[in-house]
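Two records follow; treat each independently.
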Amino acid sequence: MAKKYKFYPIKTVKGVDGEDWDIYEEIMTSVGIILCKGWRYGTRGGQFRFILTSDVAEYIKKTGLYEAMDGLGVSDRVIGRFRRELDIQRKWFVISPEEHEWSMLHKDELLNKSYSELQQKYSLNQTTVARLARHLLYLGESRQREVRQSDKSYEIEQFYQSHKNKIVEMTIQEIMNSLKCSETIAKKIYSRAYREKITVHWQRNNSKNG
């Protein structure tokens, strides 16, 4: 959730450039890092500027350009500025012929599957997946969905496939506890397992009667 003030700064922080910045907006990102917007200390006017704090800098150093865009929820222009300020080279973009060939063979997975699944199947870290996915997008390939499958969705699917015969015997609370998910998600999982069980039972009866 974003915290925003229009007339008075929330606080003052020091950027990696050594300058003090007045913070007028704080945004909690999906990776748990607070992204700050504001003006240089004691100044006002124009649009707020994203501030390169030490936490953001450490994250940028450990991730690729497009993974950082996803994680922080900002444009390539903002991440590009952060990377220039940190003097990070753009070797991240280099794709070898072997990587290109492999990427084309696995493009649907690279563009849509969760990082956890790709790490489990191919031992790829998030930075490599993001780099290869961006290469595919640059070539004109498209995603099947607006955003990549989340690691949580992959975890839920793995749980379902491993326990679908037992899920119909579990309570909603037991499913919630097993997956640490909401009641809504637990009910959807239960309903899916129940429908599948009924369908299998119906098909078996029809097969016997036939």
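The next record belongs to a different protein.
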Amino acid sequence: MTIVTKIVLANDKSIIVRGNYATEWHSIRYPYKSGYGLSNKLKCDGSIHGRFQECERLAHHTWQVTIDDYFYESKKFCCFIWQTLDCEIGVAGQCDKEYSKKLETSTEESYKSMCDKVGSSRGSTSCWLTQDRQETIAWIVGIIIFILTLVCACLGIRIYLNSTAKPKLEISEPFETLNYRKEAQAFVEKNYCRVVGHLRSQKHVSPPKPPRKTRGNISFLHPDGGSPITDSSSVPKNISLLTETERLQRITQHFDPLLKM
């Protein structure tokens, strides 16, 4: 629904105020320039008249200009003027370029010096940074900060886990060695006599040689004068004896002090 009202000002001057909703009744706009609106003498299309009026309404809504902001040296009022002007000269130029140029010149002569003082000249960054753009930038910055926070948190957790895992690994290795020594010591204590007897016998008696079996004039180990063959009855015994001997020798190497007592 479009609301149309006529505001009567001093000296019988008036301005048409258009709003889309009842909540925009407070958005009263005053004439602030000499060349206001499109003259009927220009014979412009009806749609151009509507678009020309819409320029001021949109700028008024963007900068939320109130009655107190009119005719004061403020950023809101200056940026409202320049945004309206840029829109109006583009629309008016489609109908009459001479009128568009005249509108631009008269507006700049009226407000350029005033707006330059407050740092809100035409095309300035101050006027580019509208409230909507400020909110958009704030959202983007917030998202970037959130992502960076997550990345830093993940890196911190990873570094912490790596730093705590290394000491645990270094501590576990001595315990494994200690357990092995305890098991070996328990084995020697249990078989002390056997171990000592075995070592003493090794000093006086040479290791037994595997028996030789013959079949007539042919040696069992070398039946054809070449390489030996395997005997299922004798070889496993020798292998078992050597395995046990090596096991005893390797274990007792760690406990020489016990054997010298």
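Discussion point: Helices lie at 46-63, 75-92, 97-117, 125-128, 131-190, 192-204, 235-252, 256-260. How would you locate this feature using only the token line?
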